[in-house]
Amino acid sequence: MSLTRLSGIAVVALLVLLPLGAGRLYSDYYVALGIRVLVFALFLMGFDLLAGYAGLISFGHAMFFGTGAYAAALMLKYATTSVWVVLAASVVVNVVVGAIVGYFAIRAREIYFVFLTFAFAQFFYNFVNTWEFVGAANGLPGIPKATLGAGISLGDRATLYYFTLAVAVAGYAIARCLVRSSYGRVLVGIRENEERARFLGYDATRCLRRAFVISGVYAGVAGSLLAIDQSFVAPTLYYWSISGEVLLMELLGGMGTLAGPVAGAAFVIVLGDTLSSLMAERWLLVMGLIYAACVLFSPTGFAGLVRRLRTSRDPAPAPGAP
Amino acid sequence: MSVELLLVSVLYGLTLASTLILIASGLSLIFGIVGVVNFAHGSFCMLGAYVGYSVVAATGSFWLALLIAPIAVVLVAVVIERLGLRPLYRLGHLYQLFLTFALSLVFSNLVLWIWGGDNLSIPKPSYLSGFVMISDIAYPKFRLFVLLFSGALALALWLVVARTTWGAVLRAGLHDIELVEAFGIDTDRLVMTVFALAAALAAVAGVVVGAMRNVNPEMDLDLINSALLVVVIGGLGSFRGAVAGSLVLGFADAFGAQIWPGLAKFTPWIVMVAVLLWRPEGLVRDV
After folding, report:
1. pTM for the full model?
2. Is B227 touching A (CB cutoff 8 A)?
3. Which is the most buried residue in A236, A245, B171, B179, by most CB within 10 A?
C-alpha cells in the first residue's frame, strides 16, 4: 500500500474519531468547525477538477455555493426535509446554472474567463440581494432540519458531521476516478494544449463545459450541506470573497493535485477561525496579509512544498508553476 | 420619452461613462503593458475617496482633495508594484490577480478600521451643489461638473496616449513590451509610470464618485465590478476599448433605469451577455 493511500486512510480515520471527543476533550464547537472544513473540502475537489486539471480559473464559484445553499433552504422550507431529495434538487439546479453560465463563460479563456465568472457571480449576488421572496439582504432564517430517513434527524451535529464526511469521501472517490479516467486525461490535455486536443478530435468546448458543470455541482452540494448545518442562508454565501477564498485554498494546496486543495481548504478554514477568535474584526485584515505573503513566498502551495521535499508520484503538475 | 428626459439620460450616461473611463482605462493599460489584472484597482478608487474625505474634512478644500488623494494613492500603488507585483510578473496571471485580490481584502478592512463602516459623504463646494434646470427637470450641478472634469481628464489622457512620444512608447509596449525593451527603453520605469498614472486616475475618480454618491468600504467592489464589465465589453488591454465599454455601460445604466426600471440593476450584465454573444473578445480588438 502506498504512502499516499495510507496517509489518506489515516486522515479519514482521524476525521471519524473527531466527534467522539466532543463534549469531553473539547467543545462541540470543533464538530461544527469540522463540518465547515468538510464542506469546503468538497467544494475544492470540484474546483480543482476545473482549475487544476482543466486549467480554467473561475473567480465566481460562489454562485454555485450560494445557489446550492438557497436551493436546499427553499426545499427544506417548502417541500421536504429528506436530505436525499434536497441534495438531488441542489444538483439539478446547479447543473442548470452551470450549463447556462458555462455556455457563455466558456467562450472565453484565461483571464477573460476569470472576469466572466466573476461578473456572473456578482449578478447572482445582486439578484438574491434584492429578491424579496428569499428575504433579500436579510437572508432566510429558520430553515427546518433535514432528515436522513428511517427517523434519523440531521439536526444532531454529530450525525450531520458523519453524513457530511460520507459525502466528502464519496466526492473524493468520484473525483479521483474522474481525473484518472480518459476524460480527466483529456482535460489535462486541453489545459496543456487546447489546439492539439481539438486537432486530435476532442470537442474541447464540450469537455470544458462538462467540467464546469461538475465543479459547479460539487460547490452546490457543499453549499447545500452548509445551509443544512446553519439553518440560515444569506446573500453573503454568494459574495465574491468566497470565490476568492476558494481560489486561495486552491493555490495554497497546489493546483491539479486534488488532495492538495483539500488540505488547503482545511488550512484556510482553521486559520480563519483561529484568527477570528483571536482578534475579532481585524482578522480579515490579517488574513489578507497572509494571503499576500503566501502568494509571494510560496506560489506553488503546499503541494509544491511537498514536491520539493520528495519526488512526486502524482502526475498533472500545476499549470504555470515555475 | 420626452426630449428633456432624453437629454437628461444622455447627460447622466455620459457622466457615468466619463468616470468609468478614468477607472477602466487604467485597469486596461496595466493589463496591456504587463498582463496584470489589478483587482485592487477598485481599492485605489476607494482609498482615494477616503483620503479625499479626510482632506476635505481637515482643510475644507475640495480641490486640495483632488490633488492630495492621487498623490497618496500613487505612493501606495508604486510600493505595491515594486515590492509585490514585480517578483510575480514571470508567473501566470492568476498569481498577480491573487495578490491584488489579497491586497483589496487588506485595504477594505484597513479602511473599515480607520474610517469605520458608515456611509460618508465628501462635502462639495457650495458653487457646485444645487441644481440646474433643464426645461422642467432639475439636474444636479455636481454631475455636470463631474462630466466636464472627468471628460477633460479622459481627453487629456487620450491626447497623451495618442499624440505624445511617451504615448507612442506606451502603445508599442501594449503590443510587445520585450521589443520595446530591445530598443533600449527602460521598461521597468515605463511599467511603473503606467501603474502610477492608472492609480492617480483611479484616486481622482474615487474622490469624484465619492462626492457624487457615498464613500463606504464596499465601494471598491462596486467600482472594480463595473470596471471589469467595461473591459470585458470593450476589450481588454486597449484604451479605446475602455472608452467604448464605458460609453456602452454608462448609457445602458442611464437608459436602462428609464426604460426598464425593474431591471435597472441588471442592465450591465444583460449588455455584457449581448456583447459577448456578438463579439466574444470585446468591441475593440487593437490598442
Report:
1. 0.82
2. no
3. A245
